[in-house]
């Protein structure tokens, strides 16, 4: 079953909500604004439960949390001083966090009202991002596809073609909370297939060094309570996690992350072909954020953002998210939902 309907009007444009439901009565909904992953509804004995945070109005995203569940691009993470080099040429792109460029800058994917349609079991968004729109080199034709399968998987596919050498490192900034009641995520178990994370400077720009996770609160190589890690990080300014985890050697058969509510028997497995996941525990979120059915508070949700490590922009040891002239690149992240 599928449905495309008007969600609201914003800045003179119509925002659409697109919904798919599979044979197990699991549903996903997306908004055309930001190619936003708006809902993931699973059936329970008490009715459908949304596993994602969301807001009632588009204005809430713009005014209180512009990245909540948004598609992120052209580049996820931070580019220090908005500066990078490609083929010996240095580029400067617009900053939106001090002097740095965060999540594609002030005119990233999250600011676009995307063309939208439903085809079969897919929600499809497309848009051409021009250089004059976001200051990155060249024009980028982007398609973002959400696929819902009958075995309760959600696949997000990012496809882009560029007319010049440029950058492409997209992700989903989905925030998860698997609790039916109004509590934060500290009672959930988390696994991350990662033995190290990136060292970050005071502006959260990677320094190029890595830090071992073993014997620290950052270690999630075995399922453990998110709250136990948070308790061990109260001595740092963040009082939680906002870090880039480098994934261990790739294995298609193994999940790269697992988020689990064992009291409700709900879990999400994440599989990615990328080399990093940013783990963010929403440490400074507060009551000013008007979630549907939840109270804004620290650790109200957890983001697990699959991407190429952001310091690949200046250090090829950590990957490459350049896109060549005329090249088409695909990235896919798979979410397997169990309930």
Description of the molecule:
This protein has helices spanning 58-64, 131-134, 226-231, and strands at 2-10, 13-21, 27-31, 36-44, 47-50, 71-72, 78-79, 83-86, 89-92, 101-102, 115-119, 122-129, 140-148, 153-162, 166-167, 171-172, 175-176, 189-192, 196-200, 206-212, 224-225, 242-246, 257-261, 266-272, 276-280, 302-307, 322-323, 328-338. The protein is mainly beta and 339 residues long. The protein has one domain (2-338): Distorted Sandwich (Beta-galactosidase, Chain A, domain 5), CATH 2.70.98. The strands form seven sheets. It has a nine-stranded antiparallel sheet with strand order 11-12-13-14-28-24-23-18-21. A six-stranded antiparallel sheet has the order 17-26-25-22-19-20, with no helix packed on it. The chain has a five-stranded antiparallel sheet with strand order 1-2-3-4-5, with no helix packed on it. Strand 2 and strand 3 form a beta hairpin. 45% of the residues are buried.
Fold topology:
Elements: E1 2-10, E2 13-21, E3 27-31, E4 36-44, E5 47-50, H1 58-64, E6 71-72, E7 78-79, E8 83-86, E9 89-92, E10 101-102, E11 115-119, E12 122-129, H2 131-134, E13 140-148, E14 153-162, E15 166-167, E16 171-172, E17 175-176, E18 189-192, E19 196-200, E20 206-212, E21 224-225, H3 226-231, E22 242-246, E23 257-261, E24 266-272, E25 276-280, E26 302-307, E27 322-323, E28 328-338
Antiparallel strand pairs: 1-2, 2-3, 3-4, 4-5, 6-16, 7-10, 8-9, 11-12, 12-13, 13-14, 14-28, 15-27, 17-26, 18-21, 18-23, 19-20, 19-22, 22-25, 23-24, 24-28, 25-26
Task: Identify the CATH class.
Answer: Mainly Beta
Number of helices: 3
Number of spatially distinct domains: 1
Shape: globular
Strand content: 35-45%
Which regions are unreliable across 5 or more consecutive residues at pLDDT < 50?
none
Helix/strand-derived category reads mainly beta
The major sheet is characterized as: 9 strands, antiparallel
N→C terminal distance: 20 Å
In angstroms, what is the radius of gyration?
19 Å
Strand order of the main beta sheet, please? 11-12-13-14-28-24-23-18-21
Mean of the pLDDT scores? 97
């Amino acid at each position: 079953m599928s449905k495309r309907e008007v969600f609201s009007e914003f800045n003179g444009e119509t925002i659409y909500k697109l919904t798919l439901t599979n044979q197990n009565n699991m549903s996903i909904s997306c908004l055309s604004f930001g190619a936003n992953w708006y809902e993931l509804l699973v059936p329970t004995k008490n009715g459908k439960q949304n596993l994602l945070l969301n807001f009632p109005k588009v204005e809430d995203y713009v005014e209180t949390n512009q990245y909540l569940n948004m598609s992120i691009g052209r580049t996820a993470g931070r580019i220090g001083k908005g500066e990078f080099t490609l083929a010996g040429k240095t580029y400067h792109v617009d900053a939106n966090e001090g002097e740095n460029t965060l999540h594609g800058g002030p005119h990233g994917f999250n600011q676009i009202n995307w063309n939208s349609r439903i085809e079969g079991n897919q929600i499809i968004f497309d848009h051409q991002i021009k250089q004059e729109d976001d200051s990155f080199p060249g024009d980028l034709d982007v398609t973002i596809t959400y696929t819902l399968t009958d075995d309760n998987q959600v696949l997000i596919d990012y496809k882009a073609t560029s007319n010049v050498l440029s950058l492409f490192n997209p992700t989903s900034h989905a925030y998860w909370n698997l609790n039916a009641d109004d509590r934060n995520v500290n009672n959930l178990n988390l696994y991350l297939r990662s033995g190290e994370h990136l060292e970050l400077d005071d502006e959260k720009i990677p320094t190029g060094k890595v830090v071992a996770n073993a014997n620290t609160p950052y270690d999630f190589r075995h399922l453990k309570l998110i709250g136990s890690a948070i308790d061990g990080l109260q001595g740092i300014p963040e009082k939680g996690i906002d870090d880039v985890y480098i994934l261990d050697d790739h294995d298609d058969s193994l999940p790269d992350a697992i988020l689990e509510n064992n009291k409700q028997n709900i879990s999400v497995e994440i599989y990615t072909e990328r080399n990093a996941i940013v783990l963010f525990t929403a440490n400074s979120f507060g009551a000013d954020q008007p979630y549907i059915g939840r109270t804004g508070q620290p650790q109200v949700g957890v983001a697990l953002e699959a991407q190429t490590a952001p310091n690949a922009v200046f250090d090829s040891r950590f990957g490459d998210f350049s896109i060549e002239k005329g090249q088409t690149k695909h990235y896919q992240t798979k979410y397997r939902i169990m309930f």
